[in-house]
Predict the 3D structure of the following.
Amino acid sequence: MGRWEPDAQGRLGRAALELYLDPGYEQTTVADIAARAGVTERTFFRHFADKREVLFAGSAAFQQTVLSAIADHTEATTALAAAAAGMDAAAAFLQSSPDPTFARRRAAVIAANASLQERELLKLATVTSASASALVERGFDADDAAIAAEAAMAAFRIAFERWIASDEPLDLRELVAEGVARFRSLA
Amino acid sequence: MGRWEPDAQGRLGRAALELYLDPGYEQTTVADIAARAGVTERTFFRHFADKREVLFAGSAAFQQTVLSAIADHTEATTALAAAAAGMDAAAAFLQSSPDPTFARRRAAVIAANASLQERELLKLATVTSASASALVERGFDADDAAIAAEAAMAAFRIAFERWIASDEPLDLRELVAEGVARFRSLA
């Protein structure tokens, strides 16, 4: 195994996910992941801090997608519409993944482990609060921004759960839009 | 130290919170907590599974308060109104605590530790999903129930953060009601 390791990070991520599904997250060591990916443990640690972080390597890109959309969709004239634009971009981001089953398999691993669920919730809460700040940057009232960011994220999470639970292919962007519409109709 | 330990659980909880604030959660051991409360470690473990659980001992009562309110407030004729009744009861529950500074000090400890934040978010997510089920029991549409439970919990969390951050005494129930009203006005 030389220093030239094409897409070591991608192979490590795929190997980890396979092992986290079978035999399971708790049962898998970094050594197992590295062996399956055909790299050394040292290579693993060049890409990920620990085995948990493999599952959250996309978090920064996800958040950046949301924040950019909020900043860019200047045609959205209410805090809720701007927050919804952020979540629409997040849905497009997940759907455009080169491996469309990744999000679903990742969610199955997270659902099976309380400490991973907790980490996922904290990551989403971080996106929510960053979204609220981005809405304030756009000039929306801070209280409206906080509520709109929460509403859009809740719509996203409910849509995402339906999306991954469905046996038929659904459009995540449509599900998010339906969720936001349902928020409006609650009032 | 005999077998007769009046309110050992309460003393342990207060001792733990004091130590979690100073010197800090990470720096505090179960032995430290037991010593400050004047009980044995064994007594600690009769009341709490570990030092983290001291902070979440009230979770079951909190959730039960919310679910009972949703079931009982039959005059609430929309999913959002019923979910809001649950969060109003939660606010009353926290405000009626014999130690009004407890919630604030507990929140300060949690805010300082990522793993505690994660646990808190998971507990609140559990209340949210149980609330949605309680709304379905009440006969509301499942999709409306999911969104209403999320909206009410988001209003609660935003209200709670404002409540604990304020130097002046605020009414948490009023803050929750304002948050729910703001959700309505978003639409």
